[in-house]
């Protein structure tokens, strides 16, 4: 939940990661230099755009998935299964990207010399 407070900074703490939403101008940034990488500025009172930007940052950092996953208890067996599945998926996608980049290279040698 995001509350609108004029002239103040709103700090959001999710899963140990602090995010600060500043409702003032750029002058308020000097007070919160440690939150520079995690700050969303509200410009002209447009809280919806700032909230969307904050949501995007949290989803890119993977915090949204972590919070959803930790909402309920995950049995150790299911956790291992999920982690193994994610590892296999990551390896598969990396290999596929490598193969596609190799095939799409224009300056590679012709594998069928003499044919």
Automatic annotation (TrEMBL):
One of its GO terms (molecular function) is structural constituent of ribosome. Pfam families: Ribosomal_S21 (PF01165). InterPro entries: Ribosomal_bS21, Ribosomal_bS21_sf. GO terms for cellular component: ribonucleoprotein complex; ribosome. The keyword Transport does not apply. Keywords: Ribonucleoprotein, Ribosomal protein. GO terms for biological process: translation. Belongs to the bacterial ribosomal protein bS21 family. This is Mitochondrial ribosomal protein S21. It comes from Astyanax mexicanus. The lineage of its organism: Eukaryota, Metazoa, Chordata, Craniata, Vertebrata.
